[in-house]
Each structure stands twice: as structure tokens, then as C-alpha cells.
Amino acid sequence: MIGQLSGRVVALATCGIVVVVAALAALSLGEVRNAPVYLLALLLGGASVVTVLLPWSAQRSRAVAVAVAVAVVAVGLLVVAVLPDGRPGYALWYPAFVWLPLAGLALRGFPVLAVTGAVLSGTTTVLWAWQEPEAAAVQDGLYRVVSPTAAVVVAVGIAHLLRQYGREVQRVHAEQLEAARLSAGAHAAEQERRQQLSQVELIAVPVLRRLRDGAPVDTRLATECRLLEAAVRDGIRGRHLVDPVVRDSTWAARSRGVDVTLLDDSGTEPGAEPPPVADVVRRCLVMLLEQLEGGSVTARLAGRGTGTVVVVGPSVAELAGVCRREADRVEGPVRLVVDPVEPGGNELVLTVEERPDR
């Protein structure tokens, strides 16, 4: 949290306070009962202020914070132990070395530790003031308790507001990122739809023009209309499986009587990148369609990063050998698995999946 404040402003303000505190401490140096203990308290207070302003490593932050709190409590114990009898007005400087480091702890994310340090320091001062018979001691004790405690409470409140502000900023940033993602997804989906429509237009326009011009609906035209309907269906049901090469191969294979079904069940959003297995599935599909003269082929992208190509028809054993050679050439994050073909069987199953070591 401290990092959000201006470093120059914090440094200048802290230096000014430390200079004033050192001057006040010097005024009381000749009146205390034990000057070395008094100087040790002054050094501990200054060290705690400097420490709370320095950067901390994440691994040691809690230990450093505890050390600062202990030093603050020790400052109070050392100072009140050497104050002159009947002279409670001396050493009014040390409350600054109580609230400065404890307020820094609160702003750095340790509010409980800061409040605990303030309570312990205040308890020490109250016990000292209780033992002094003079009324001035009571007033002096109240000052030494109220001023640092109030500063720590204010710092805890500021830290709470800063945390709320930080959470609000993160929430707004997350909403902006989500809005940008949705906008990019919608734009990509629109681009994908336009691309699919342009691909359909390449094969649909000639057929539709012939129908518009009154061409007789003979067997050839009916076949082209059936193939056109299948191509449109592929673009809807097999989105990530269709590219220009696959579209031409499926058109040619269906013209030869091969039943082709393309299914994209990967669950990817429109406009998103295709699954990693899609490229290998398309390559295997084109390779098989170029060699088939009948039967059926079903290519499917699954939702768990896998894809399958199932061929039902004659000569699947020969096709299995071709696919095994293709599997040896597959590289990258996916692999091609060719299931064994039973003797006399007519079904070939290819599975494309991500490598387990990835």
C-alpha cells in the first residue's frame, strides 16, 4: 500500500519528523537516569521507522513486521524505565516512534499487528503513569497513549479504504478485460461466419445461377444440390474440420458415393482457435477420402482435446497400413493412434490425442 504513495513526499515528511524527534530527544538526554538505555531506545525507534519504509521481501515480510512491532514496544519500555522521578514531561518525543512505524505496518497490510503494538505500548505507558503520584504524569500518560493510538487507528482506516479501492480497481479491470474478450470473440465469430459464407458462395453460386436460369433439374443438377446441402451442413456441424482442402475432398468423395459426416463437438466458441488435434484430423481425413471409392467416413472433434476418424468399408486393412506410416510422421504436441483392424473386419478407427508428456 505504501508504494501507492509518492516516495518523495513520504521520505521528506519522515525526515522532517525524525529531525524534530531527534531534537526533542536531545533536550531530554541530560535529565534521564541512564543515558545509554535512553540512546538505545532512540536508535530502536529510528531503526523501526527506517525499516518500515524500506522494501521487504515477500518471504520475510511477516517476520520483519513482527520485529518492528517488538521494537516499538521495547522503545516504550526503555524510555519510561529511565525517566526522572517527578519529571513526567520529559521524553515526549517517543510517541512519534510509536505511531510512525505502527502506521506503516497498517498501511503495508498488517493492521492487526499495528493495533496490537499500539495496545501494548499504551499499556506500558498507562502502567508508568499510574505509579507516578503527580497529576502531570496522568496527563502526560494520556498524551503518550492517545496520540499514537489515534494515528494508528487512522492508518488502519486508510489502509482499509486503500484495499477497497484496490479491489474495486481490480474488479473494473477484470470487467474491462472480459468485455474486450467478448468483443474480440464476437468480432472473430463474425469473421468466421463471413469466411464460411464466402466458401459456400464459391460452390453455391454456380448451382443457384443454373436454377435461376431455368436449367432442367436432371440427375447431375440434383446431385450437385445434394452435395451443396451437405457442404453447408459441414460448415455448421463440423466448423473446425472444414477448410478449402477438406471441402474439395468431401465434395469429390461424396460424388463417388462415399458417405461423409463431419462433427465438431470440441465446445470451442465461435471464432476461437481450433483444438490442437484439428490439423492432424483434417490431414488424415483428406488422405482417406482420396483413396476411398465407397463406404462411410466419420470425423469428429471431441471436447477433451481428442479427435477420431472412423472408416467403414472394404480394404480398411490397407488403409490402416497407410495411416500407420502417417502416424510415424506426426510431430508436435499431438499423436496419431491407429487401432488394430480385426481379420476380415471392415472398420478402421483413428484417434488423434495430445501427447501425455505435454
UniProtKB/TrEMBL annotation:
Domain of life: Bacteria
Keyword Transmembrane: yes
Keywords recorded for this protein, A-Z: Membrane, Transmembrane, Transmembrane helix
Membrane spanning stretches: 9-29, 35-56, 63-84, 90-107, 112-130, 142-162
The protein's name: Signal transduction histidine kinase
Gene source species: Aquipuribacter nitratireducens
